[in-house]
Amino acid sequence: MPLDTTSYALPVARTVADLRTQVAQWRKADETIAMVPTMGALHEGHLSLIDVGRQNGATKTIVSIFVNPTQFGPGEDFEAYPRTEPQDAKKLGNLADLIFAPNGAEMYPEGYATTVSVKGVTNTLEGEARPTHFDGVATVVAKLLLACGPDLAVFGEKDYQQLLTIRRMVTDLAIPVKIVGAPILREEDGLAMSSRNVYLTEAERTAAGQLNLILKATADAISNGAAIETACTSAQQKLLDLGFAQVDYLTVRDTVSLAPIAKLDREARILVAAKIGKPRLLDNMPVHLRG
Ligand code: AMP
User: Fold this and answer.
1) Where are the domains of the chain?
2) Does the N-terminal or the C-terminal CB of the chain have fewer CB atoms within 10 Å?
Protein backbone atom coordinates (compact mmCIF):
# COMPACT_ATOMS: atom_id res chain seq x y z
CA MET A 1 0.00 0.00 0.00
CA PRO A 2 1.53 3.39 -0.89
CA LEU A 3 1.61 6.18 1.68
CA ASP A 4 -1.71 8.01 1.88
CA THR A 5 -0.72 11.53 0.88
CA THR A 6 -4.13 12.85 -0.10
CA SER A 7 -6.39 12.62 2.98
CA TYR A 8 -4.59 15.19 5.11
CA ALA A 9 -1.97 17.93 4.96
CA LEU A 10 0.66 15.37 5.94
CA PRO A 11 1.10 11.77 4.76
CA VAL A 12 -0.17 8.76 6.71
CA ALA A 13 1.47 5.35 6.91
CA ARG A 14 -0.95 2.56 7.87
CA THR A 15 1.51 -0.33 7.76
CA VAL A 16 4.92 -1.01 9.26
CA ALA A 17 6.24 -1.63 5.74
CA ASP A 18 5.19 1.85 4.57
CA LEU A 19 6.59 3.44 7.68
CA ARG A 20 9.94 1.72 7.09
CA THR A 21 10.05 2.78 3.45
CA GLN A 22 9.66 6.42 4.43
CA VAL A 23 12.18 6.15 7.28
CA ALA A 24 14.71 4.52 4.92
CA GLN A 25 14.39 7.45 2.50
CA TRP A 26 14.95 9.93 5.31
CA ARG A 27 17.95 7.95 6.55
CA LYS A 28 19.54 8.22 3.09
CA ALA A 29 19.04 11.98 3.27
CA ASP A 30 20.74 12.04 6.68
CA GLU A 31 17.65 13.26 8.52
CA THR A 32 17.37 12.95 12.30
CA ILE A 33 14.09 11.25 13.08
CA ALA A 34 11.92 11.71 16.17
CA MET A 35 8.96 9.55 17.06
CA VAL A 36 6.13 10.84 19.23
CA PRO A 37 3.84 7.97 20.26
CA THR A 38 0.25 8.99 21.10
CA MET A 39 -3.24 7.57 21.28
CA GLY A 40 -4.62 10.53 19.36
CA ALA A 41 -7.26 13.02 20.55
CA LEU A 42 -4.37 15.41 20.29
CA HIS A 43 -4.09 18.56 22.38
CA GLU A 44 -1.33 21.14 22.77
CA GLY A 45 0.46 18.90 25.27
CA HIS A 46 0.99 16.32 22.53
CA LEU A 47 2.05 19.01 20.07
CA SER A 48 4.63 20.32 22.54
CA LEU A 49 6.38 16.94 22.34
CA ILE A 50 7.09 17.64 18.68
CA ASP A 51 8.83 20.89 19.65
CA VAL A 52 10.87 19.09 22.27
CA GLY A 53 11.95 16.58 19.63
CA ARG A 54 13.09 19.40 17.36
CA GLN A 55 14.96 21.08 20.23
CA ASN A 56 16.75 17.75 20.61
CA GLY A 57 17.89 17.72 17.02
CA ALA A 58 15.03 16.10 15.09
CA THR A 59 14.63 17.20 11.48
CA LYS A 60 11.73 14.82 10.78
CA THR A 61 8.93 13.91 13.18
CA ILE A 62 6.65 10.90 13.06
CA VAL A 63 3.57 11.03 15.29
CA SER A 64 1.97 7.67 15.87
CA ILE A 65 -1.73 7.49 16.62
CA PHE A 66 -2.88 4.16 17.97
CA VAL A 67 -5.41 3.50 20.72
CA ASN A 68 -3.61 0.52 22.16
CA PRO A 69 -6.07 -2.08 23.45
CA THR A 70 -3.53 -3.97 25.58
CA GLN A 71 -2.90 -1.05 27.94
CA PHE A 72 -6.57 -0.74 28.91
CA GLY A 73 -7.87 -2.94 31.72
CA PRO A 74 -11.30 -4.58 31.83
CA GLY A 75 -13.95 -1.92 32.45
CA GLU A 76 -11.68 0.93 31.32
CA ASP A 77 -12.54 3.30 28.49
CA PHE A 78 -10.97 1.54 25.47
CA GLU A 79 -14.21 1.59 23.44
CA ALA A 80 -15.14 5.11 24.51
CA TYR A 81 -11.64 6.58 24.13
CA PRO A 82 -11.93 9.58 21.77
CA ARG A 83 -10.88 8.75 18.20
CA THR A 84 -10.49 11.94 16.17
CA GLU A 85 -8.01 11.22 13.39
CA PRO A 86 -9.08 13.95 10.91
CA GLN A 87 -8.96 16.63 13.60
CA ASP A 88 -5.64 15.25 14.85
CA ALA A 89 -4.19 15.41 11.35
CA LYS A 90 -5.37 19.01 11.05
CA LYS A 91 -3.67 19.94 14.32
CA LEU A 92 -0.46 18.27 13.18
CA GLY A 93 -0.66 20.29 9.96
CA ASN A 94 2.93 20.96 9.03
CA LEU A 95 4.27 20.51 12.59
CA ALA A 96 4.99 16.84 11.90
CA ASP A 97 6.14 15.02 8.77
CA LEU A 98 4.28 11.72 8.96
CA ILE A 99 1.45 10.10 10.88
CA PHE A 100 1.79 6.40 11.63
CA ALA A 101 -1.76 5.15 12.22
CA PRO A 102 -1.85 1.35 12.08
CA ASN A 103 -4.99 -0.67 12.78
CA GLY A 104 -5.26 -3.31 15.49
CA ALA A 105 -4.37 -6.21 13.19
CA GLU A 106 -1.21 -4.47 11.98
CA MET A 107 0.04 -4.07 15.55
CA TYR A 108 -1.32 -7.35 16.93
CA PRO A 109 -1.37 -9.86 14.09
CA GLU A 110 -3.36 -13.09 14.31
CA GLY A 111 -1.79 -15.36 16.93
CA TYR A 112 0.08 -12.53 18.66
CA ALA A 113 1.77 -14.03 21.74
CA THR A 114 4.59 -11.73 22.89
CA THR A 115 4.52 -9.35 25.85
CA VAL A 116 7.25 -7.01 27.01
CA SER A 117 7.06 -6.77 30.79
CA VAL A 118 9.13 -4.31 32.81
CA LYS A 119 9.35 -5.14 36.52
CA GLY A 120 10.50 -2.93 39.42
CA VAL A 121 9.40 0.57 38.56
CA THR A 122 5.97 -0.71 37.43
CA ASN A 123 5.18 -2.52 40.71
CA THR A 124 3.75 0.55 42.39
CA LEU A 125 1.34 3.49 41.80
CA GLU A 126 -0.29 3.08 38.35
CA GLY A 127 0.94 -0.51 38.28
CA GLU A 128 -1.04 -1.24 41.44
CA ALA A 129 -4.14 0.57 40.26
CA ARG A 130 -3.96 -0.89 36.73
CA PRO A 131 -2.16 -4.26 36.94
CA THR A 132 -1.94 -4.99 33.19
CA HIS A 133 -1.37 -1.41 32.04
CA PHE A 134 2.42 -1.22 31.83
CA ASP A 135 2.77 -4.57 30.04
CA GLY A 136 0.52 -3.09 27.36
CA VAL A 137 2.48 0.16 27.27
CA ALA A 138 5.91 -1.50 27.17
CA THR A 139 4.79 -3.93 24.48
CA VAL A 140 3.30 -1.31 22.18
CA VAL A 141 6.17 1.15 22.65
CA ALA A 142 8.73 -1.59 21.95
CA LYS A 143 6.80 -2.45 18.80
CA LEU A 144 6.55 1.18 17.70
CA LEU A 145 10.26 1.78 18.27
CA LEU A 146 11.21 -1.40 16.40
CA ALA A 147 8.83 -0.62 13.55
CA CYS A 148 10.17 2.91 13.15
CA GLY A 149 13.77 2.90 14.32
CA PRO A 150 13.83 6.61 15.24
CA ASP A 151 16.89 8.44 16.55
CA LEU A 152 14.87 9.78 19.43
CA ALA A 153 11.44 9.28 20.94
CA VAL A 154 9.66 11.85 23.08
CA PHE A 155 7.39 11.05 26.05
CA GLY A 156 5.64 13.43 28.42
CA GLU A 157 6.42 13.71 32.12
CA LYS A 158 2.63 13.83 32.48
CA ASP A 159 2.87 10.03 32.56
CA TYR A 160 5.95 10.05 34.72
CA GLN A 161 5.95 6.36 35.64
CA GLN A 162 5.47 5.48 31.98
CA LEU A 163 8.52 7.57 31.06
CA LEU A 164 10.62 5.73 33.67
CA THR A 165 9.29 2.37 32.46
CA ILE A 166 10.23 3.13 28.87
CA ARG A 167 13.70 4.33 29.86
CA ARG A 168 14.22 1.04 31.74
CA MET A 169 12.95 -1.03 28.82
CA VAL A 170 15.10 0.75 26.23
CA THR A 171 18.19 0.29 28.40
CA ASP A 172 17.43 -3.36 29.17
CA LEU A 173 16.64 -4.34 25.57
CA ALA A 174 19.42 -2.13 24.12
CA ILE A 175 16.97 -0.48 21.75
CA PRO A 176 19.09 2.12 19.92
CA VAL A 177 17.02 5.25 20.58
CA LYS A 178 17.39 8.28 22.82
CA ILE A 179 14.39 8.72 25.12
CA VAL A 180 13.57 12.36 25.77
CA GLY A 181 11.23 13.45 28.59
CA ALA A 182 9.09 16.54 28.00
CA PRO A 183 7.55 18.85 30.63
CA ILE A 184 3.80 18.78 31.38
CA LEU A 185 1.79 21.30 29.40
CA ARG A 186 -1.01 22.81 31.48
CA GLU A 187 -4.27 24.68 30.98
CA GLU A 188 -4.47 28.27 32.20
CA ASP A 189 -5.51 27.20 35.72
CA GLY A 190 -2.68 24.65 35.80
CA LEU A 191 -4.70 21.50 35.10
CA ALA A 192 -2.43 19.11 33.20
CA MET A 193 -3.75 18.79 29.65
CA SER A 194 -5.22 15.35 28.99
CA SER A 195 -7.40 13.75 26.33
CA ARG A 196 -9.63 12.52 29.17
CA ASN A 197 -10.37 16.05 30.48
CA VAL A 198 -13.25 16.14 27.97
CA TYR A 199 -15.11 13.74 30.26
CA LEU A 200 -15.30 16.39 33.04
CA THR A 201 -18.54 18.26 33.70
CA GLU A 202 -18.22 22.00 34.27
CA ALA A 203 -18.28 21.68 38.07
CA GLU A 204 -15.78 18.81 38.00
CA ARG A 205 -13.53 20.82 35.68
CA THR A 206 -13.45 23.68 38.21
CA ALA A 207 -12.50 21.33 41.04
CA ALA A 208 -9.95 19.57 38.81
CA GLY A 209 -8.13 22.90 38.43
CA GLN A 210 -7.29 22.77 42.14
CA LEU A 211 -5.38 19.50 41.85
CA ASN A 212 -2.15 21.05 40.58
CA LEU A 213 -2.36 23.90 43.10
CA ILE A 214 -2.73 21.51 46.02
CA LEU A 215 0.13 19.40 44.67
CA LYS A 216 2.37 22.46 44.29
CA ALA A 217 1.53 23.75 47.78
CA THR A 218 2.30 20.32 49.22
CA ALA A 219 5.59 20.05 47.31
CA ASP A 220 6.59 23.53 48.54
CA ALA A 221 5.62 22.76 52.14
CA ILE A 222 7.71 19.58 52.06
CA SER A 223 10.66 21.44 50.53
CA ASN A 224 10.32 23.90 53.40
CA GLY A 225 10.50 21.15 56.01
CA ALA A 226 6.94 19.83 56.45
CA ALA A 227 6.71 16.13 57.32
CA ILE A 228 5.99 14.17 54.12
CA GLU A 229 3.31 11.85 55.45
CA THR A 230 1.35 14.56 57.24
CA ALA A 231 1.50 16.90 54.25
CA CYS A 232 0.33 14.17 51.84
CA THR A 233 -2.52 13.06 54.11
CA SER A 234 -3.73 16.63 54.45
CA ALA A 235 -3.57 17.16 50.67
CA GLN A 236 -5.61 13.99 50.09
CA GLN A 237 -8.26 15.25 52.49
CA LYS A 238 -8.38 18.59 50.66
CA LEU A 239 -9.07 16.77 47.39
CA LEU A 240 -11.86 14.70 48.96
CA ASP A 241 -13.36 17.90 50.45
CA LEU A 242 -13.31 19.45 46.96
CA GLY A 243 -15.43 16.62 45.59
CA PHE A 244 -12.83 14.16 44.29
CA ALA A 245 -14.45 10.73 44.66
CA GLN A 246 -11.25 8.83 45.36
CA VAL A 247 -7.54 9.50 45.72
CA ASP A 248 -5.63 6.41 44.58
CA TYR A 249 -2.34 7.88 45.72
CA LEU A 250 -0.76 11.20 46.61
CA THR A 251 2.78 10.39 47.50
CA VAL A 252 6.41 11.50 47.41
CA ARG A 253 8.80 9.13 45.68
CA ASP A 254 12.40 8.73 44.55
CA THR A 255 12.68 10.32 41.08
CA VAL A 256 14.13 7.21 39.43
CA SER A 257 13.11 4.12 41.43
CA LEU A 258 9.76 5.51 42.63
CA ALA A 259 10.55 4.03 46.06
CA PRO A 260 8.66 5.78 48.90
CA ILE A 261 10.58 8.52 50.71
CA ALA A 262 9.91 9.12 54.41
CA LYS A 263 12.19 12.15 54.73
CA LEU A 264 13.32 14.60 52.05
CA ASP A 265 17.02 13.71 51.79
CA ARG A 266 17.26 13.97 47.96
CA GLU A 267 15.39 15.50 45.02
CA ALA A 268 12.04 13.76 44.83
CA ARG A 269 8.78 13.67 42.91
CA ILE A 270 5.25 14.12 44.21
CA LEU A 271 2.69 12.12 42.25
CA VAL A 272 -1.08 11.94 42.40
CA ALA A 273 -3.88 9.93 40.82
CA ALA A 274 -7.39 10.96 41.80
CA LYS A 275 -10.81 10.27 40.43
CA ILE A 276 -13.35 12.99 39.81
CA GLY A 277 -16.45 12.18 37.80
CA LYS A 278 -15.48 9.78 35.03
CA PRO A 279 -11.74 10.40 34.64
CA ARG A 280 -8.83 9.54 36.86
CA LEU A 281 -6.55 12.55 36.78
CA LEU A 282 -2.78 12.17 36.97
CA ASP A 283 -0.30 14.86 37.88
CA ASN A 284 3.21 15.08 39.25
CA MET A 285 5.97 17.58 39.88
CA PRO A 286 9.42 17.80 41.45
CA VAL A 287 9.92 18.25 45.20
CA HIS A 288 13.12 20.23 45.47
CA LEU A 289 15.69 19.71 48.16
CA ARG A 290 16.47 23.11 49.64
CA GLY A 291 19.74 24.30 51.09
P1 AMP B 1 -1.43 9.69 25.24
O2 AMP B 1 -2.00 10.01 23.91
O3 AMP B 1 -2.29 10.10 26.37
O4 AMP B 1 -0.92 8.27 25.32
O5 AMP B 1 -0.14 10.59 25.37
C6 AMP B 1 0.87 10.56 24.40
C7 AMP B 1 2.09 11.27 24.92
O8 AMP B 1 1.75 12.62 25.23
C9 AMP B 1 2.64 10.67 26.22
O10 AMP B 1 4.05 10.68 26.17
C11 AMP B 1 2.12 11.60 27.27
O12 AMP B 1 2.90 11.63 28.44
C13 AMP B 1 2.19 12.92 26.53
N14 AMP B 1 1.30 13.92 27.14
C15 AMP B 1 -0.01 13.78 27.42
N16 AMP B 1 -0.48 14.89 28.02
C17 AMP B 1 0.56 15.75 28.11
C18 AMP B 1 0.72 17.06 28.65
N19 AMP B 1 -0.28 17.71 29.20
N20 AMP B 1 1.95 17.65 28.56
C21 AMP B 1 3.00 16.98 27.99
N22 AMP B 1 2.91 15.73 27.49
C23 AMP B 1 1.71 15.13 27.54
Assistant:
1) 12-182, 195-283
2) C
Residue nearest to atom 5 of ligand 1 (CA): 38
Return the CATH architecture of domain 195-283.
2-Layer Sandwich (3.30)
At position 5, the amino acid (one-letter code) is T
User: Is 95 near ligand 1, meaning CB less than 6 Å away?
Assistant: no
Decide: 72 in ligand 1 pocket, CB within 6 A: no
Which of 158, 166, 189 has most ligand 1 atoms within 8 Å of CB, for mutation? 158
**How do residues 101-127 score in pLDDT, each as one tens digit?**
999 999 999 999 999 999 999 999 999
Q: How far from chain centre, in Å, is Cα 187?
A: 17
pLDDT for 156 beyond 90: yes
- Asked whether the CA dihedral 182, 183, 189, 195 is positive or negative, the reply is positive
- Give Cα separations from 254 to 98, 160, 211, 269 (angstroms): 37, 12, 21, 6
Q: Which of 43, 46, 133, 288 is catalytic?
A: 46
Taking the alpha carbons at both ends of the chain, their separation in whole angstroms is: 60
- How far apart (Å, rounded) are the C-alpha atoms in residues 259 and 265? 13
The matching CATH number, chosen from 1.20.120.910, 3.40.50.620, 3.40.50.1000, 3.40.50.150, for 12-182 is: 3.40.50.620
3-state secondary structure of 154: strand
Could you tell me where the DSSP H helices lie in 13-72? 16-28, 44-55
Tell me what the pLDDT averaged over the chain comes to: 96
**Strands in the chain per DSSP E:** 12-13, 33-38, 60-65, 98-100, 152-156, 178-182, 246-254, 268-275, 280-287
